[in-house]
Amino acid sequence: MPNVTVLERATMITTNTEDLIHSFANDVDEGLKDTPKHIPCLYFYDYRGSLLFEDICQLPEYYLTRAETDILETYSEEIISYFPSDTLLVELGSGSSIKTRLIIEELLNQHNKASYSPIDISQKMLRESSISLLEKYPNLEIISVAAEYDEGLRQLDMHSDRPKLILWLGSSIGNFKPEEAIDFLKNIVKILSPNDFFLIGFDLQKEKYRLLKAYNDAQDVTAEFNLNLLSRINRELGGEFDLDNFMHQAVYNEEKNRIEMYLISTCEQEIYIADLNSCYHFNKNERIHTENSHKFSLNDIDNLSDQVGIKVFRQWFDSKKYFNLTLFKPNRS
Asked: Which of 26, 227, 262, 322 could form an SS bridge with 67, CB 3.0 to 4.6 Å?
């Protein structure tokens, strides 16, 4: 039998790059004209932003990755025991797929083959991570999709009878407002079959000081990640942001149980963005809201499942109970 090459085991589906740039331009324009100013956090993840986020995940203050990895290292065998050999592994916001390797390795251990479909907005990160995985695992096949979540799922054959395990790790669900998360999950549930499952990571509520340290690290990597959003506007839209005139801020909103990230203008200034042919005024100390990161209670997870129409099948926790992985199943037979 001839050897199957990496390229023969890899397929990448890409969406129209011009559409992505157009969406970025529109959202930046609308967000900077609004009061208060805001830019959606999905635009953090160009290639440089994705690399910076991988650096954040290795920081001593950023407990989330270690806690979730702890769960996967301890319980991957049990998680995969619920799934047959023809299961398609689909991941939303895959990044470098480092944690996902634990799931892939267990699929290969139990079934000697695995099919993986990562969805990520950074085409370059997808390509690099896919090649790395394929070189390491000869019995792995990958169909990757460079797109936002909704479009990525549309590009895959989600209506097939093949069982699917959809991964949404890293507590990325926390970046959504509660009502947005419910609507998003409801749309996904519509395309799930009774044999499909959804594994979601939730960062649990904990001491305020620990949360603030995680988003205000001593090495200022999170600040660089946040400021890269302005660098991206400069690179892709002809912006004229001087990063020295903005600073990173992360605060904890106790009423809404979430970290909120901002970029603060340190002086009064006008910023011109050539591709938008517009100038945007900033007052001193005016903020751009760039991200929310909601923290969950177990009641929040139960309420979410009730409102979406999915049932909690199994739950796992890390040793310190900082983090939760919940396996959901469609609430229908």
From this structure: 322
Under 8 Å between Cβ of 67 and 247: no
Using an 8 Å Cβ cutoff, are 63 and 322 in contact? yes
Task: Tell me the per-residue pLDDT of 203-218, one tens digit each, with 9 for 90 and over.
Answer: 999 999 999 999 999 9
Query: Minimum mean pLDDT among 21-35, 146-160, 205-219, 236-250: which range?
Result: 146-160
Residue ranges per structural domain of the chain:
34-54+208-294, 62-206+295-330
Q: Which helix (H) or strand (E) holds 250?
A: strand 246-253
CATH (residue range 62-206+295-330)? 3.40.50.150
The one-character DSSP state at 112 is S
- In angstroms, what is the C-alpha Rg of the chain? 20
Q: Is the Cβ–Cβ distance between 328 and 312 less than 8 Å? A: yes
Distance (Å, whole) CA 54 – CA 259? 19
DSSP 206-260: --HHHHHHHHS-TT-HHHHHHHHHHHHHHHHH-B---GGGEEEEEEEETTTTEEE
Specify the residue for token string 């969805």.
Answer: 119
- 109-126 burial, b at 16+ Cβ within 10 Å, e below that, comes to ebeeebbbbbbbbbbebb
